[in-house]
Write a structure and sequence with these properties.
With about 475 residues, the protein is α+β, with helices and mostly antiparallel strands. It contains 15 helices and eleven strands. α8 packs antiparallel against α15 and α10 runs antiparallel to α11. The protein is elongated and about 75 Å long. About 0% of the residues have low confidence. Its EC number is 2.7.1.28, 2.7.1.29, 4.6.1.15.
Amino acid sequence: MLVSAGALVYIANYTGDCLNFGLAVEWAKTEGLKVESVVLGEDCALLGTDGSVGRRGMADVEGILKLITGELAEQGKSLSELVATSKKLLSCLATYGVGLTACSVPGSGPLFKIGDDEMELGLGVHGEAGIKRVKFESINVGTETVQWMLKSIIKTLNLGSGDDVVVLINNLGGSSQLEQWLVAGEVHKQLFDFFVTLPETFEPHIMTSFEMAGIQVSVLNITGPDKAEWLRCLDAKTDAPAWPGSPLSVQTCLKEAPPPVDMGASLSSEECEKLKKCLEAVAKALILNVNKLNELDSTCGDGDTGTTLQRVGQAVLQDLEELPLANPFNLFKKLSSLAEESMGGTSGALYSLLLAKAGMVFEAENQVIDANTWGRALRGAISGTLYYSTAKPGDRTMFDALLPACEEFESHKISTNQEALTALEAAVKAAKQGCEKTCRMKARLGRASYVDPKLVKDVDAGAYAVTVWLEALYNELIS
């Protein structure tokens, strides 16, 4: 969403979305743009379950929320005001989804199978698993389903008699309009029976999935001083193409990006040669360890961590002679792009974010680049990436090796090259110790969180990868 004071990016709360769109935000900042982001999540089905990810983004990401803040942007509200309003709206929103069929990926068929007499409760917008699957055991299944959904929504929003709400009933794509309107009628009836007032109700196809039969009910509690303004915004004219009655969108032409401009301090020719050798050593180490990393990832992931890191290693070696080594800011920006393009997926977004945030430390002009500067770059990379990730120490991730290494390096007083090497050696040792501890941790993020911990006997592949490239860096510097 563009505003006169900058740009506001809405990110649906899914790990891949948070990392990849977070990367886009950070890239925009490196171009000098004023950008803020808000992670959207109003799903109330999974509240109270074990996990660190939080509430998923659902239909209101594209519906009520964007309509209100979009109109406020048209009125000239500042970026900070739009961020504050977005967060306030999120605290007043709750969504619950149900599905009768799974969504399909073109060419691959349905993602999973739901029986003809079954319904998935609390599923996500693209077929992500819900909290339970139930059979149709009553002719009043529609009434009972809406009761189940509204029970969770009312509890989440703490709705009471006399409250005013706006309701959005989103068709997930494969339900008929008749089914959608029957649900809408039941929602109206049950909320009125609960003595809740409905000033507005919307029934669009606002966020859909291919061949997925299902409905999402979203409720916005507008009770309070913002009621009149929010309703005015909802009733304002919009050209959003997916909103009922809106015109078709018109594709715009994108301008070619300008060439990069050197920013921040520069390195000497001697420092550039040393940096080039370090990058080459790290890349070769990642390629050399491809099988070991794949093996570590095979018991609790896709078994491709090594292959993924091998690709970025190969990309670095291929572009090594063309990298802007003299300007660390642009160097890390280029490395971030290589990681994103060559790795892909969550790992690519993680490393791309790490590299982009590391580079921003070198943005200041006329600064002295020494070992302490590189330490600040490592800290900036970690802090910036954790801002978009829900990972914490002990979650069995790469950060269980990376954070101890950073903290150990920072604990050393560094004023000479030898002291820098001593600090780096200690950091490598701390990373290895942190990595070793992951074999006794329960994974709380990603695919590994679904695997029985008893089946995972070895260290985390991502944490081990950190020890690989960190040790390769140290060995090159002492050679």
